[in-house]
Amino acid sequence: MTEVLVYGALFGAGLLMVLAAQPYGAPRASLARRLAALRPEIVPGRRGKKEQVFRTRLFEEGLRPSLERAGDAIAGLLGRLGLDLRTTEARLRASGDHGGLALFLGQKLAAGLIGFAFLPVAESFGLAPRTPVWLWVTAAAGGFLLPDAILKSRAEARRRRMREDLVHVVELLALSVSSGVGIEGAVEQATSSGEGPLFHELRRLLRETHLRGEPSSDAFLRLPDEAGLPDAESLAAAVRSAIAHGAPVTQALRAQAQALRERQRLELVEAGERAQVRMLLPTGLLILPAFFLVVLYPAAVQLLKVTGP
Questions:
Q1: Angle, alpha carbons 224-229-234 (nearest 5°)
Q2: pLDDT at position 9, please?
Q3: Which one, out of 13, 151, 227, 273, has a CA that is 20 to 30 A from the CA of 177?
Q4: Residues 6+ positions from 128 with CB-CB distance below 8 Å
């Protein structure tokens, strides 16, 4: 009976995904959405052409629309329950995932379903012993929550790399401006002369600003929100002040570079102090007992020889 339910659910889910991806099965876009697609300007957060997520075209065209619709339904349900998803959106931006919140929630749902169906499917094929239902639910919960942990780790690693590259960007801007190049030309030179997640994000923002017909400096103004990098807010404020009030750009950029380097130095010092505290636990549990064993064992042997019969 369990195999029938599991196989029926999997077959129905796969058939629904295939049918929903067909031209006659997918819901028709509204008139407002079709008119918005004809506009040449790019709205932040709603790009006309979606970035490919899956490597195969079959999954991209057949699975992605279903995942996004399921994610929209989950987002609406969580919103009615009063749960705030802005932290997840910020982590998606910081990790460089431009698939959107709906796709991410749909992927979480798919991971939960796979976790729930893994044990009974393995049991039906004779690859695993009979397991209770609560293990299925635990595996489903783990599959649903695991993408959050992976996203948090990716966002922190990418944000840390971008913060390191931010110092190089500011220094490149200061060198370009001090050599006589204007702020617009300095932005172009700085973004095209480096590699890394921050430089890639700046180049993407530059392409969008050029499509809008806006100045190149607007890419730095949008960087904190688009990349999820709060450390770039001071740089954006310096660029905005230089453009609006004619403030001395070179001195402001050098001051920003110095402040960023000092902040990174303090963070490294704090990380070293935290590492010293964390090392106390393995030292107390592993090193000290072995040390005492090596020191006291010969003395205990000699004591037994002396006091023995």
A1: 60
A2: 66
A3: 227
A4: 119, 122
Q: Is the pTM of this model over 0.85?
A: no
Residue type, 292: F
Contact of 264 with 163, CB cutoff 8 Å: yes
Give the number of other Cβ atoms within 10 Å of residue 192's Cβ: 12
Pairwise CA distance, residues 236 & 253, whole Å = 10
Specify whether the backbone of 218 is left (phi greater than 0), alpha (psi in -120 to 50) or beta.
alpha
| Angle in degrees, 0-180, between the axes of helices 133-178 and 101-124, rounded to the nearest 10 | 150
| 103 closest CA partner among 60, 149, 150 | 60
Alpha-carbon span 196 to 192, nearest angstrom: 11
Total Cβ atoms within 10 A of residue 177? 24
Q: Would you call 43 helix, strand, or coil by DSSP?
A: strand
For residues 206 and 202, what is the distance between their CA atoms, to the nearest angstrom?
Answer: 6
217 close to 239: Cβ distance less than 8 angstroms: yes
Short-list 240, 238, 269, CA closest to 255: 238
